[in-house]
Amino acid sequence: MIWQALFALALASLTVVVHAMGTVELAIPFTGVWKSKNDAQYTSSPVWALTRLVSALLVLHLIEMVFWAAAYTLANVFGDFETSLYYSLKSYTTVGYGDVLPPPQWRLVGPIEAAVGVLMLGWSTGIIVAAVQRIYNMRSK
Question: What range defines the domain where residue 56 resides?
Answer without folding.
Answer: 2-35+44-140
